[in-house]
């Protein structure tokens, strides 16, 4: 799932949302002649526009008389362009921050894989790529694209040292290591597909709602109930994820 799709999913949980198709538009407008909403109702809200390269536009005006959303210059909208609109309650930055906060606080450490190291002839030590540490498993890729677990290695000061059974030249060294998910920044950034999307969405809603409660000082009707709902859904989804971390493989030989 892309960051764009994730932001849209969270926004649809948090705010009143409508998904439809434009009946016309331009680089600064989206027209939907089938949308019936009071004048200015969506002012300050967000338009998720499903172009080939999706965009999120902040709505500067909703004119009910002409069925027209207005926004800053962006990719041109044409008839049949699909979109989702949400009203103004949660700024885009708050939703983005809530998702990334979830990745740090609720997901935490996960297993990652690096396959960038190619073995050289009779080589014992290989520098680990930046950000790769806490190695739990090493596999060697052979020409027939099978992977064999190697039990003769150590991680030493940013290097992977083979104590015995060194890989052959040209083989790929696959490293399984523990890390946290990279921050999602661009709309086309991709969430690791091993993570539970439901947990991410509901946990992000929790963080966003906590921001909202602080902002309105708990005076908004139903806010605490909505928070409790998403806390429950996030906890249930997280309980189904299980333990995702590998134990470090044992070393079976020494020099």
The share of residues in helices is 25-40%
In sequence order, what are the helices and strands, one letter per element?
A: HEEEEEEEHEEEEEEEHH
Largest sheet: 7 strands, antiparallel
Please give the count of helices: 4
What integer value in Å does the Rg equal?
A: 24 Å
Give the low-confidence spans.
Answer: none
Q: Please, how many domains?
A: 3
CA distance, first residue to last residue: 45 Å
Overall mean pLDDT: 93
Which outline best applies?
A: elongated
Strand content: 25-35%
Strand segment count: 14
Strand order of the largest sheet: 1-7-4-5-6-3-2
Description of the structure:
With 255 residues, this protein is an alpha+beta fold. It folds into three domains: 17-86; 95-107 and 182-239, no CATH class; 113-175, no CATH class. It is 25% helix and 29% strand. It contains four helices and 14 strands. The strands form three sheets. Strands 1-7-4-5-6-3-2 form a seven-stranded antiparallel beta sheet, covered by helices on one side. A four-stranded antiparallel beta sheet has the order 8-14-10-11. Strands 9-13-12 form a three-stranded antiparallel beta sheet, with no helix packed on it. A hairpin with a 5-residue loop joins strand 4 (46-49) and strand 5 (55-63). The longest helix is centred in the C-terminal third of the chain and has 20 residues, at 197-216.
List keywords for this structure.
single chain, 255 residues, alpha+beta, 4-stranded antiparallel β-sheet, 4 helices
Summarize this entry quickly.
By secondary structure, the chain is α+β, with helices and mostly antiparallel strands.
